[in-house]
Amino acid sequence: MSKEVTVKLPGKLFIAGEYAVTRPEHLALVTTIETDFQVHIAESQEKSTLHTNVNMQDEHFQLSELGTFQPKDEQWFLSLEVLKIILKKCGKESFSSEIALTIESDLGAGEQKKGYGSSAAVAVGVTEALNTYFSLGLTAFERYQIAGKAHFQIQGNGSLGDVAAISFGGSIFYKSGKNPIWEEAKILAVDIPWTVYVAQTGKAAKTSEKLEITLPDTFFEQSDELVIESATAIDMRDFDLFKEKLLENQLLLIQNIPEGYMTQKLALVLTLVNQHENLVGKISGAGFGENVLIFAKSEENIAELKNECEKNGIVLIKATISQEKI
After folding, report:
1. Are 150 and 199 found together in one domain?
2. By the 8 A CB rule, do 41 and 95 touch?
3. How many domains does the chain have?
4. Domain extent at residue 207
5. What pLDDT, in 10s, does the model give residues 2-57?
6. Which tens digit of pLDDT belongs to each residue from 142-178?
7. Recorded E.C. number(s) (predicted)?
8. Does 63 fall in a domain?
9. Rounded Cα distance, 125 and 102, in Å
10. Is the pLDDT of residue 275 over 90?
């Protein structure tokens, strides 16, 4: 019976620092939630293959010819970049057979993207699956570095906070590296004691375009301070302080990001959520659509909130923070 490996990946949601951390040596808080995203690898008898349930063409190639192979669908560049980096790092002798690699994603694509870090999940998932399938023995941080390097080289920007969070699971306090950004990153586990919900607006936003916004130096300083203060509030289990700092962080973003950052639906969710003492919500990620991340001190008001969201075409789901791997 041929060997097969399946790895399951969480999605990411930024709590704070998502713009500031795109600069080297800045800070963010990121959490991960369970999803049905998975990467499967099995032995292939002739050529290696790439397949996904997302609208992408299948690809067929020989691992020995990977350096010159050009996929028909450019969306496969990230998976192939991970393969190239691992081949170079571990040596071709580690790859004893051709592979059939399948990605099953429920994170959406294009206009249906959920904003959970689908490209980061691809980079991490392919890295994790290859490590297990070929028994490479890579450490957790080495796997993060490979996925991060591939992601950065293909995307050309970002902090890799999404890659770090999905690599290590749970919730993390993240400091981006200096040069290269994936080498010197700092990752610490954070234990969030409150229930997590996500309000999905159904509007996808391309993060890479939003990260080109020019921001003043004072923004980055204030963002880092609020990340530290928010992390301290989590550590102290002080929900009221956490809500105060998260709302200050939200206000900082609203005041500095161009018009359109807070869409009508995002504004509505924030109003509905933050009027309740036991709830706090913040736009997660680059804004301009997608999600509001919500923390609940208690379940009071959730049924009311869900009803109001549904009336306005917004989906409210209860999320589960993924298992910590640090």
Report:
1. no
2. no
3. 2
4. 192-319
5. 689 999 999 999 999 999 998 899 999 999 999 999 999 999 988 999 999 888 89
6. 999 999 999 999 988 778 999 999 999 999 999 998 8
7. 2.7.4.2
8. yes
9. 10
10. yes
Distance separating the N- and C-terminal Cα atoms of the chain: 33
Determine the Cα–Cα distance for residues 108 and 85; give it in Å rounded to an integer.
26
Q: Are residues 235 and 284 in the same domain?
A: yes
- Residues 71, 178, single domain; the answer is yes
User: Residue 89 falls within a domain, yes or no?
Assistant: yes
Query: Structure tokens of 3?
Result: 């060997």
Look at residue 49 and give its three-state secondary structure.
strand
Question: What pLDDT score does 97 carry?
Answer: 83
Alpha-carbon distance of 240 to 165, in angstroms, equals: 25
The pTM assigned to this predicted structure is 0.92
Residue 54 CA to residue 213 CA, distance in Å, equals 30
Rounded Cα distance between 200 and 239, Å, is 23
Indicate which CATH number applies to the domain containing 87: 3.30.230.10
The reported pLDDT for the residue numbered 1 is: 45
Same domain flag for 232 and 177: no
Structural contact between residues 208 and 113, judged by C-beta atoms closer than 8 angstroms: no
Task: Tell me if 4 sits within 8 A of 100, measured CB to CB.
Answer: no
Residues 210 and 177 in one domain: no
Whether 47 contacts 77, CB under 8 Å: no
Answer whether residue 151 is part of any domain.
yes
Could you tell me the two tokens for 197? 């919900």
Mark whether 175 and 218 lie in a shared domain: no
Residues 122-128: what's their mean pLDDT?
96
Q: Are residues 198 and 184 in the same domain?
A: no
Same domain, 214 and 132: no
Q: CA-based diameter of the chain, in Å?
A: 60
Can you tell me the mean pLDDT for 197-214?
76
